Amino acid sequence: MKKLILPTFKKLKQRFYLKDFDQKFLDDTKNFCKNIFMKRQLNKLIVFTGPCSIHNPEEAILYAKKLKNLQKKLKNIVLIMRVYFEKPRSQNSWKGFLYDPNLDGSFDIKNGIEKVRKLLIDITKMQVPIATEILDPNAFLYFDDLISWGFIGARTSASQIHRQIASKISIPVGFKNPIDGDVNTAIDAAIVAKSSQNFISLNEDSKICQISSKGNLLSHIVLRGSKKTINYDKKSLDQTLKLMKDKKESFPIVIDCSHGNAQNDYTSQIKAFKFSINSIIEKKYPIIALMLESNLIQGNQIFNPLHLRYGLSITDPCIDFETTENLILEADEKLRLQTHHHLR
Q1: Radius of gyration of the chain from Cα atoms?
Q2: Which fold has domain 51-132+294-344?
């Protein structure tokens, strides 16, 4: 067994840090996200969009540039980039840029954490907000200060460790329903996360300690469909509202237009997105954001480090940026018209 010492969270953060101007943007973004969550920004919708996973920082920066240019055209939608550097794996496949940044099985994790932090800082300097999945709670502590929105995935929503970690985070954290579609699991996770917890974790000096969290009042649920069916439709949304009401809860909802809600066809994200925009306009459901898996080029490719096509996913297939842009612009116009009609 090989053991390599990694830097403490504090030391890595001291090495790669934001200047005051960029820190102010990040602080303002986090406050904005909190206001969206608390319904203080009633006419704004968040759209999380970005690659299924990051494997090339250069491609990620190009995507971020395109996203920033798109944001300038929008009035009612705020874009937050998916920057996913860890991937939950069912088998022994590539676990993400954090663990294998060289894409060669060398697992140079020290290099990975440095490259990920540098990438997150570079994207933040572009004034593009970042969302990511909190997969390894320990690894997340290297980057927690740079993230504006976190997600707990379908495979880990039932995990007590992840629920506890979410309870001490001061940004919105969404729990996805599991692959079997049980929304109760996500609701229970959000209930635990918003409550104070006592547990064992690590501090900034990477020392094991007892943590007493205050609870995260910015916890919510994410509907991502299941292996068998979607759950962004009205029947599913009504059932979700009833489940929350039965537990005396009213968590905001994010719709993940990919995964089970696309039913193994990445182009079905378009249908899910358009349907969800109409649901938002109806104002019947507490939907505060939508999520897309999008890359520079549509589809995906077989993982072969020697022959990788630029801008194409090496994990789940994605819609391309042109499609993403058109979809979001159309939605922004719909929301603008709805807001204008409401103000008349």
Answers
A1: 19
A2: TIM Barrel (3.20.20)
